[in-house]
Amino acid sequence: MNYLFKLHLHETPVNERLLSRSGEIAFKSGVTIYDAVPVALAILMKTKCITADRETQYAKLNGRNYPTELL
Fold first, then answer.
1. C-alpha–C-alpha distance, residues 13 and 41, integer Å
2. Superfamily of structural domain 13-70
3. Would you give the end-to-end CA distance of the chain in angstroms?
4. Residue 54: which of 40, 71, 67 has the closest Cα?
5. For the segment 15-42, what is each residue's pLDDT rounded down to a tens digit?
6. Which of 16, 57, 58, 70 has a CA positioned 20 to 30 A from the CA of residue 51?
7. Whole-prediction pTM
8. In this predicted model, what pLDDT tens digit does every residue of 43-59 receive, in sequence order?
């Protein structure tokens, strides 16, 4: 737990804006809502979504102007 605390992780509540953007991304890119939520959150927070999921999340979202980066 101490290591996790040192990462300074923050949680963001799920709201209509986040779910709406996630739905758009999922529909346009052919990914699940589960894969779209971190990307939508990155967009809303003006940062990047870093993923290790090369086959589903990154492959389908990369090149579509979404802020994704492969770990």
1. 10
2. 5'-nuclease (3.40.50.1010)
3. 23
4. 71
5. 999 999 999 999 999 999 999 999 999 9
6. 16
7. 0.84
8. 999 999 999 999 989 99
Burial 40-67 (b: 16+ CB within 10 A, else e): bbbbeeeeebebebeeebbebbeeeebe
CA distance 30 to 13: 24
Length of the chain: 71
10: amino acid identity, one letter: H
Report the distance separating Cα 36 and Cα 30, nearest Å.
Answer: 9
CB 47 within 8 A of CB 10: no
